[in-house]
Amino acid sequence: MEKHIVVLPGDGIGPEVTKATKGVLETVAAQFGHSFTFETHDIGGSAIDNHGTPLPEDTVAACKKADGILLGAVGGPKWDNLPGHMRPEKGLLGIRKQLGLFANLRPVKGFDSLLHASPLKPEVVGGSDLLIVRELTGGLYFGEPRERRNNGQDVVDTLAYSRHEMERIVEQAFQSAQVRRNKLTSVDKANVLESSRMWREVVEEKKSDYPEVEVEHMLVDAAAMKLVTNPGYFDVIVTENMFGDILSDEASVLTGSLGMLPSASIRQDGLGLYEPVHGSAPDIAGEDKANPLATILSAAMMLRYSFNMNVEADEIESAVHAVLNEKYHTADLKIEGGTQVSGSELAKKVSEHM
Ligand code: ATP
Ligand code: MG
Questions:
Q1: ipTM
Q2: Any idea which ligand is nearest the CA of 261?
Q3: Which ligand is nearest to the CA of 258?
Q4: In what order do the strands lie in the sheet with 2-10?
Q5: What are the pLDDT digits (tens) for 40-81?
Q6: Domain over 119-254 is classified CATH 3.40.718.10
Q7: What are the respective helix, strand and coil percentages of the chain, to the nearest 5?
Q8: What's this model's pTM, rounded to 2 decimal places?
Q9: Pocket of ligand 1, candidates 18, 74, 258, 296: which has the most ligand atoms within 8 Å of its Cβ, to mutate?
Q10: CATH class name, domain 1-107+257-354
């Protein structure tokens, strides 16, 4: 298959980890007889430096024509004191919004070789393998009005959703559950919120379209507790924007390292933006120390969700497992008796394994 990939390296370690990942994608293409073409564009701080805006028109136009988008990270101290509309982060929020990427997918897996890195007990984290599907463009973070009233003595935020916005994210979650272990936990606060009651209705309505998926409803407070007491209980979790924001950060401690967590922001036709959960790590940028595995695993998600290449995605993921089992790691991971290598060397090990 021919696929066109737009790469947005961004700032800090973004260029290193995307470059390393491109190498792995080229290995996949060669191995499976695909043709991947790459086109690189600026976003974030580097775009502010080169074009005077965190999200240049060129970048948006290229992303609209892409089959998949791979992003490094944006931001850094150099741009911290710019006015709001000129912040590097605006580039990322802007591209997600302009492309209508409403579903945020964050898989979290307890890697056997890294169990000791989690602050939770190995026997609790071991075997956990879950996916959080978070609604990304509605709810409390976007609702209007949002304002101070009565001389600053009162304040209002608005939690608004349309049925359509709920339906499309719930459908995405059912489809994700189908290609995993057929178990869906819908998380809400239906004992107090009207929006959550409508959310439950939508999940109940959609259920009959996916008879093989086992569905349950869970209140967000209970889900927050279960995530750290029994994470192995979950397969796919679907929830609205704010609950998903909080739960996905909570779940990220299971792996014990920021350098291992991939993510995707996708829409119904399959276009998606894939990026590591970690930031631009300015403290180690340019030293080839950054762990590229979160970005490599994000590329595997691109193959799975945007290109429908499941075998190829499996291949990358098992190569990552194999390299860790051989105890190769970057400085952020502590593996007893392991061999510490640079970021680019670790990516090469992944390619070799494939
Ligand atoms: P942001 O606000 O962009 O999310 P942040 O302040 O939350 O950024 P990161 O940039 O993610 O933080 O970095 C947090 C810490 O984790 C830093 O010490 C950084 O060096 C480290 N870190 C982040 N990503 C990686 C990586 N891929 N490899 C190694 N260390 C990393
Ligand atoms: Mg952060």
A1: 0.94
A2: 1
A3: 1
A4: 35-40, 2-10, 68-73, 272-276, 262-266, 103-109, 129-135, 236-239, 183-188, 214-219
A5: 999 999 999 999 999 999 999 999 999 999 999 999 999 999
A6: yes
A7: 45, 20, 35
A8: 0.92
A9: 258
A10: alpha beta
